[in-house]
């Protein structure tokens, strides 16, 4: 026993891993996937190389300042005035990144994005301080980390405080939180809105994630269900004064259904190496 676990004589010293070691990037090529999607004729031959090359660009970090909070403007101005000026022209090992900037299409400058290399995030004390600020504000619900493309559907729904909204495939809950904010848009009047958000997900574990994500907003207008949305029962309200049973109907329905995830290449580079026809079709 002693000999089996003893240190081997004349063994070379163990090489310590450099904490700043930069691992080789994933090769962002997959001929099978490129051929498959080219064959779908989803765009012209001229557009294809532009699209394909864009998939190789790392997704920027995006976040949204919670619009229902009375101090949302204060947090927005803190980002603008206290952080952005100090995050301009920062250079680490010859790498320079642009400071955080608002998404041009998101209302009231409450949606932001920034594209910073990982090495700069690790070595820049200014960006480390900004990251700590984002984490702290996210934990208390003042900021939501959410991809820019995920912010678009709720904006197109044009949700009003009186609307009843169903989010059919809601987990993990970023878009649900955004809809909650829209229902509470008139919160300054200190009146609970008449709107309702029914957030549903068919996966039991993801439903718990959904609750964790949305409970920070503490909305009395939210109801979470765990059900197969394709078999959602025909809901009915209690009979009215004349005894009529009124159907439970929604003003807006959002269905961001599960998919193959092929287009997550920009945030999940391992798709480049693991994609196969069978795997994609199985997810579909």
Automatic annotation (TrEMBL):
Signal peptide: none annotated. Residues 13-23 have a biased composition (Basic and acidic residues). It comes from the Eukaryota. Residues 51-284 form the SAM-dependent MTase RsmB/NOP-type domain. It holds the Pfam family Methyltr_RsmB-F. Keywords: Methyltransferase, RNA-binding, S-adenosyl-L-methionine, Transferase. S-adenosyl-L-methionine binds at residues 169-175, 201, 228, 256. GO terms for biological process: tRNA methylation. The keyword S-adenosyl-L-methionine applies. The keyword RNA-binding applies. GO terms for molecular function: tRNA (cytidine-5-)-methyltransferase activity; tRNA binding. Residues 1-12 have a biased composition (Basic residues). This is SAM-dependent MTase RsmB/NOP-type domain-containing protein. It comes from Linnemannia gamsii. The lineage of its organism: Eukaryota, Fungi, Fungi incertae sedis, Mucoromycota, Mortierellomycotina.
């Amino acid at each position: 026993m002693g000999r089996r676990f003893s240190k081997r004589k004349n063994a070379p010293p163990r090489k310590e891993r450099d904490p700043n070691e930069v691992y080789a990037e994933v090769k962002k090529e997959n001929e099978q996937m490129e051929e498959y999607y080219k064959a779908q004729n989803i765009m012209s031959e001229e557009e294809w190389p532009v699209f394909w090359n864009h998939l190789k660009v790392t997704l920027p970090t995006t976040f949204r300042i919670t619009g229902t909070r009375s101090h949302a403007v204060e947090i927005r101005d803190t980002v603008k005035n206290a952080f952005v000026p100090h995050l301009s022209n920062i250079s680490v090992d010859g790498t320079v990144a642009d400071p955080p900037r608002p998404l041009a299409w998101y209302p009231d400058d409450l949606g932001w994005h920034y594209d910073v290399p990982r090495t700069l995030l690790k070595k820049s004390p200014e960006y480390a301080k900004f990251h700590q600020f984002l984490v702290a504000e996210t934990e208390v619900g003042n900021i939501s980390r959410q991809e820019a493309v995920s912010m678009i559907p709720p904006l197109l729904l044009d949700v009003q405080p009186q609307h009843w909204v169903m989010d059919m495939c809601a987990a993990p809950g970023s878009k649900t939180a955004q809809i909650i904010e829209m229902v509470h848009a008139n919160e300054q009047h200190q009146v609970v809105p008449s709107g309702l958000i029914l957030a549903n997900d068919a996966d039991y574990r993801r439903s718990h994630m959904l609750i964790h994500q949305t409970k920070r907003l503490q909305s009395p207008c939210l109801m979470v269900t765990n059900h197969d949305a394709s078999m959602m029962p025909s809901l009915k309200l209690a009979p009215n004064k004349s005894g009529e049973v009124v159907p439970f109907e929604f003003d807006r329905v959002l269905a961001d259904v599960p998919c193959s995830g092929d287009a997550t290449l920009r945030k999940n580079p391992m798709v480049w190496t693991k994609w196969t026809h069978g795997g994609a079709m199985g997810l579909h």
